[in-house]
């Protein structure tokens, strides 16, 4: 009897390994075969619900089209998406947010206004960092646009499919994939070519495998399928893995990393067949690890900062006073390798690094660098019991360059 049980366990193990091996070609293609499993990044799957996946990776979500009902998958689409995400980012937590379901053989789907609410809830209620929307509409909805803009402002990346109607309706452009801040995803085949069904237009940002994929069904069985929906799952997983390494990334930074790391498969650079190319997870992780060690990044109003590639917490944020960007002087100077001394009686700050000595007086627009008088564009000041000085002065006198990004409200300091 024990031998029979053991044999059954071995067969189950072998079958499970065979099932998950079906998509090894896809994981190899996107550089996901040998990457770490990541950490717990919450991913909203706005879809048809999820079934047949162990509950350990699926958190409580909500059914928005049939109030009070479960988030079980009655169609089979959302389950497949969630399973593909977890193949690549197995430590992620998936939040099923049902916007489409089947009842009495009738498809019930949320309208644009309700979809916008789901997107905002994914941000505010379910605290997701990634939102996967493997669907779209040809209507450029103001409600959806505002929800996408809101997600961007809150630091949440949105990934959406570009559509499968290229052979019948090549002119169709689908939203939200077509919005600038959304990563629109097209599909490639096993040979690396863009799938014939994948839309070709300005909505596409990246490609991922989306043909001949083995996906999980709600009944626990597996089937072959195709579509940009499934390619989108791989890019959502890629986003989660990068965020696992650097959780403080803003959406625009994450997009930049993924686009730069992509493998060009059509015309050089961006094109409307494949976007920036085929997503490459291992390259993105390697590229990112090399991209920040030479930078200090601070954001206006935020205490979290990146110091030479490491996330740090400051007790006060950078601020803007009278149109000037002011930095907490001790935090920045010490990050640049200097020592800072405060003289309360004289209201004087002395910064030293090697042969450099900088003297700053509070409420004075005159400072001294190695004894030489310098006029500041704005006087130093004390705010929240911390000393602030203009952005460029300290950085440039400690052999660094300072840049201001108006759009993101970030100060970026680099070594010279």
Describe the overall structure.
The protein is α+β, with helices and mostly antiparallel strands and 416 residues long. The chain is 28% helix and 28% strand. The chain has ten helices and 25 strands. It has helices spanning 2-21, 24-29, 77-88, 112-124, 142-153, 228-245, 251-261, 281-291, 329-335, 391-397, and strands at 42-47, 62-63, 93-98, 100-103, 106-109, 130-133, 157-161, 182-188, 206-209, 213-216, 222-225, 295-299, 304-307, 310-313, 319-321, 324-328, 339-343, 348-353, 356-361, 366-369, 372-375, 381-383, 386-390, 400-405, 410-415. The strands form six sheets. A seven-stranded parallel beta sheet has the order 2-3-1-6-7-8-9, sandwiched between helices. A five-stranded antiparallel beta sheet has the order 14-13-12-25-24. The chain has a five-stranded antiparallel beta sheet with strand order 17-18-19-20-21, with helices on one face. Strand 19 and strand 20 form a beta hairpin. The longest helix is centred in the first third of the chain and has 20 residues, at 2-21. It is elongated and about 80 Å long.
Look at the structure and give the mean pLDDT.
Answer: 90
Choose one word for the global shape: elongated
Strand content: 25-35%
Largest sheet geometry? 7 strands, parallel
Largest beta sheet: strand ordering: 2-3-1-6-7-8-9
Uncertain runs? 1-21
Helical segment tally?
10
Helix content: 25-40%
* Number of extended strands: 25
Instruction: Report how far the terminal alpha carbons are from each other.
Output: 72 Å
Query: What structural class results from the helix and strand content?
Result: alpha+beta
Give the radius of gyration.
Answer: 25 Å
């Amino acid at each position: 009897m024990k031998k029979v049980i053991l044999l059954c366990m071995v067969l189950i193990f072998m079958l499970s390994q065979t099932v998950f091996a079906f998509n090894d070609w896809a994981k190899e293609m996107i550089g996901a075969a040998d990457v770490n499993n990541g950490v717990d990044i919450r991913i909203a799957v706005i879809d048809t619900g999820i079934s047949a996946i162990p509950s350990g990776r699926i958190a409580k979500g909500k059914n928005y089209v049939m109030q009070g009902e479960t988030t079980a998958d009655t169609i089979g689409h959302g389950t497949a998406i969630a399973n593909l995400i977890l193949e690549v980012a197995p430590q992620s937590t998936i939040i099923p947010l049902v916007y489409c379901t089947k009842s009495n053989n009738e498809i019930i789907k949320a309208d644009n206004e309700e979809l916008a609410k789901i997107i905002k809830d994914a941000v505010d209620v379910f605290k997701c960092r990634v939102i996967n929307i493997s669907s779209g509409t040809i209507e450029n909805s103001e409600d959806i646009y505002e929800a996408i803009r809101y997600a961007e402002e809150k630091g949440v990346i949105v990934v959406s499919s570009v559509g499968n109607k290229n052979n019948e309706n090549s002119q169709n452009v689908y939203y939200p994939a077509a919005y600038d801040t959304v990563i629109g995803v097209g599909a490639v085949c096993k040979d690396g070519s863009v799938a014939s069904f994948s839309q070709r237009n300005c909505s596409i940002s990246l490609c991922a495998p989306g043909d001949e994929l083995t996906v999980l069904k709600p009944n626990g069985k597996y089937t072959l399928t195709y579509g940009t929906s499934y390619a989108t799952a791989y890019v959502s997983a890629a986003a989660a893995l990068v965020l696992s390494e650097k959780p403080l990334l803003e959406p625009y930074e994450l997009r930049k990393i993924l686009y730069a790391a992509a493998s060009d498969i059509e015309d050089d650079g961006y094109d409307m067949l494949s976007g920036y190319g085929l997503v490459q997870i291992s390259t993105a992780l390697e590229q990112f690890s090399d991209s920040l060690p030479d930078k200090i990044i601070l954001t206006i109003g935020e205490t979290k900062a990146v110091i030479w590639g490491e996330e740090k917490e400051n007790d006060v944020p950078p601020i803007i006073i009278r149109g000037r960007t002011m930095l907490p002087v001790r935090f920045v100077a010490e990050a640049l390798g200097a020592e800072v001394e405060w003289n309360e009686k004289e209201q004087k700050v002395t910064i030293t690094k090697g042969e450099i000595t900088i003297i700053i007086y509070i409420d004075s627009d005159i400072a001294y660098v190695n004894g030489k008088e310098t006029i500041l564009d704005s006087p130093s000041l004390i705010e929240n019991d911390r000393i602030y000085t203009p952005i460029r002065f300290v950085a440039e006198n400690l052999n660094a360059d300072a840049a201001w990004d108006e759009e993101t409200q970030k100060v970026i300091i680099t070594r010279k």
